Amino acid sequence: MAPRLRILGIETSCDETAAAVVERGENGGSTILSDVVLSQLDEHSVYGGVVPEIAARAHVEALDTLIEEALTRANVSLADIDAIAATSGPGLIGGLLVGLMTGKAIARAVNKPLYAINHLEGHALTARLTDGLSFPYLMLLVSGGHTQLILVRGVGVYERWGTTIDDALGEAFDKTAKLLGLPYPGGPAVERAARSGNPDRFDFPRPLVGEARLDFSFSGLKTAVRQAANSIAPVTETDIADICASFQRAISRTLKDRIGRGLQRFKQEFPPLAEKPALVVAGGVAANLEVRGTLQALCDGQGFRFIAPPLNLCTDNAVMIAWAGLERMATGAPPDDLDVQPRSRWPLDAAAAALIGSGKRGAKA
Ligand code: KG4
Ligand code: ZN
Q1: Cα 20–163–345 angle (5° rounding)?
Q2: Ligand whose nearest atom lies closest to the CA of 359
């Protein structure tokens, strides 16, 4: 029987300060003992986006207390923790430094191993904690900073099948909201406005649709939204609703084509498995009901399971970082040295070439 392991996770790569304790029991089952997240949304919303310097300061101010709270809620002390897992990239370098340095300091003080975790790996492995998924599976990460389709072959073995060549999907929502005068973050505002809109009024572009490669592009869509809004200015509430509904329609059609091809490729590369193949979604855009509906229908049509972990584990959190640490420990991988450095850019798939402009904001993951 494997020994019981408890790990403290720390996440500070963007605008959420988070700490969590996760336990892997002797029978292999895992339990989230605590999950504390402090969003900096209020501090950034007046600027219409995340301000790196403000984010880093806010992490410094909040992290100690948050870690204490995570330990208290888990009813453990640092002495009961077997390892520390801290996000060390990709993300905003100031925030990464705060989290990783704190992780190192705790590891040093209590003489426990430190695991420096790739934030994207946290997203990629979450469905194994929530749904006990086995490898391989496909993961679509759609957040403010990333739009990636990743083949998850095993712990530490990832293949990037598609990525954005310009804006991330969440970024397209945020920019569209901004130019329509809707509040930040834009995704929920656009979704709300779209509810009463006519999705057929504007025929927005669907870049790369029909192409064999599995990449995404969303900056043309944003430009088309701007042109549509300018051409009918001043826009009424009905116009805004119609633009938002048409925007979401274009995104759904794009996802249907791109991800549809990804599912086909998966079926070609892997013979029928014992279990139905699975597509996992993660990132803030996974909250969007039209996006979810599109992916669910696609999966139903192609014989895939569609797995959307609970929203608090789809968006940024420290449970996924603790879990990725546990997964690495379970493979017997050695911990990191205490001189490990944070990396603002850190692709999950080292072999995949960086695409021009992709993830240029680099801030959110
Ligand atoms: O994963 P996340 O919480 O943070 C990072 O990017 O790290 O994702 C935030 C992104 C923002 O761009 C936000 O506008 C988008 O997710 N988002 C949504 C919705 N809720 C959040 N996009 C579309 N529809 C939503 N309901
Ligand atoms: Zn993230």
Answers
A1: 55
A2: 1
Residue ranges in the chain whose pLDDT is less than 70:
1, 353-365
- The interaxial angle of helices 52-74 and 93-110, nearest 10 deg, is 30
Closest listed residue to residue 198, CA positions, set 143, 257, 252, 244: 244
CB within 8 Å of 211: residues ≥ 6 apart: none
CA atoms within 13 A on the CB side of 67: 24
Residue 336 lies in a domain: no
Instruction: State the distance from the centre of ligand 1 to the C-alpha of 161, rounded, in angstroms.
Output: 22
Q: Domain with 112 in it: what CATH number?
A: 3.30.420.40
- What six digits make up the tokens of 247? 């925007």
DSSP annotation of 217: -
CA 70 to ligand 1 center in whole angstroms: 25
Is the Cβ–Cβ distance between 16 and 43 less than 8 Å? Answer: no
- Largest Cα–Cα distance in the chain? 68
128-176 pLDDT, tens digit per residue, is 999 999 999 999 999 998 999 999 999 999 999 999 999 999 999 999 9
Structural element, H or E, at residue 254? helix 237-269
Instruction: Calculate how far, in angstroms, residue 334's C-alpha sits from the geometric centre of ligand 2.
Output: 25
By alpha-carbon position, which residue is closest to atom 16 of ligand 1?
284
Cβ 359 under 6 angstroms from ligand 1: no
Specify whether 303 is located in the same domain as 321: no
In a domain, 339, yes or no: no
For residue 253, CA distances in Å to 89, 142, 258 come to 32, 15, 9
Q: What pLDDT is stored for residue 10 in this prediction?
A: 98
- Is residue 173 domain-shared with residue 113, that is, in the same domain? no
